[in-house]
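Late entry, written up from scratch paper. The run itself happened at the end of the previous shift, but nothing got recorded in the book at the time, so transcribing now.
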Amino acid sequence: MEIRDSYGYRDNLNYGIIGNCQSSALIYKDSSIDWCCLPRFDSPTIFAKIIDNSIGGFFKVETVGNYNVSQEYLKNTCILKTSFNNGFDEFHIIDYMPRYQSKKNSYYSPPEITRIVKHIRGNPKIKIIYDPRLDYSIGRTKSYVKSDFIVSISENENYETLYLYSNANLNSIINNDVIELESDLFFKISYYEKLIYPKFKEILLEFNHTKEYWTNWIKKTPNFKKYNNEILRSALTLKLLTYQKTGAVLAAATTSLPETIGEERNWDYRFCWIRDASMVIKVVAKLGHKNIVKNFIKFIINIIPDKNEKLQIMYGINGEKILKEKTLDHFSGYLDSSPVRIGNAAYSQKQNDIYGILMDAIHYQIEKFPSENEEYEELWSIVKSIVWIVKNNWKLPDKGIWEFRNEDKHFTFSKLLSWVAIDRAIKISILINKSSNIKKWKLIRKEIYNDILENGWNKNLGAFTQSYGSDSLDASLLLMESFDFIKPNNSKYVKTVKAIEKNLMNDGLLFRYKNEDDFGFPSSSFTVCSFWYINSLYKIGEKQKSKKYFEKILKYSNHLGLYSEDLDFKSKRLLGNFPQAYSHLALIDCALNFNSE
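Output as recorded:
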């Protein structure tokens, strides 16, 4: 689906993502690298055209004359191919970030982007537009031609450098000269100066190693009869959003892509939300990828060194606990949707649901991988700590799953996940033969259960509502069945699904809620909620209807099968940070339903 914007330079979020579990880059369908942070996901940008068309910086191979352009991933990899063909002349651009195993349990994942321009036929004429803007485009970036590379240096208080190596003429690159393509070219962007000048044969070897890494990784994923391509692409995307060094899982690769054009719901998602990450690793575990699960569990153990330390809702990818939020006012924002934010003030919020979702993930790991028990003692300590926190906090109001920034409320979803925390703790204690606490934990579980049934249910609406005593519906309550709180054929659950459909559905997509929040009334669809609804339809027995909506939403991905956080109800334009882990994990969950038939 092509949706032209009034600015004329971008239609939809038609980007591919490449990465190496240290950082990532977004490449538009015309070959322009419009987003990249080096050396890590959360570092300052080197290219940020996606959030400022004028000063953000980008790297594009521009053609002389008109070409038909297409883009696809090399099969079962995160290597992107952009093809240019005018009927006589043809070339391909291969983009990737190097990643492969260098020795046992060690990976070569340098902060680099490698771009190969492969001559196919004829005499294509191209220009190389290389315009890095370091350190979030603060100050000026100057580029200089040296003997073996181009170095770009930021002229501001934060000294930054970037290096470009190529077998093309370096002065022609800087001058944007027309280059007649007669043989293959390579371009290697490196955060660090290379000690050994890269030669084309080494570039090709690196490419083959990276291709082999991804194809071997995907071989560990089962093949499915239905929606196999969608499952595999989503799995690869989730893998790209993991940070190898610590095991953190990012919510998305970008900051400040707006939930609605022209509004200010713009947030930095380059961090690890405990909720999102726990859901991701549970889904990835279903696909057989144990290492992601093990690495995330280690991340959790490392960020909770003390038994009495409460979990934050989110952390930096290296475990940072202070994520101070500020705005970059010199950036105009995606389609002039300011502000552009870095950091995220939500880190200090109280959200009681995170404990249940984490406990659910820990339970799943212990249940499904009983031989992976090296950290059971540390995990058991965390389990007991979480139960203590939940016991003392579940009756208190919080900010809820949607991170309302003003008033705390008694959100039904938070109570639900408090119940999940105690329920999974009981099940974990049985699995590891630690039964001394079960009796008193069961009493807490029953108390929370009865509280939800009494206060979360609205008799007038005939549905569970967003918070105690409210008349607002909330899509998060579709997960009540998924977390085993309620059976799918329970009349209260079925009525809640139907009420949410009636009140939150808009042209096949779901609002997460419709009541006013800190920024007014929501005006776009939170993509994961539509997948939750599809999953709920399936569970209550409306399988054909569920499949119809699933196949409809599959059409709203971009040209590579990728999803952002939100969808515009009317145009179906992708909105919000991209690609979004939440959206892809929920897609996999839905697709697995249809493969269970």
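The CA atoms of residues 509 and 538 lie 16 Å apart.
(Scratch paper discarded after transcription.)
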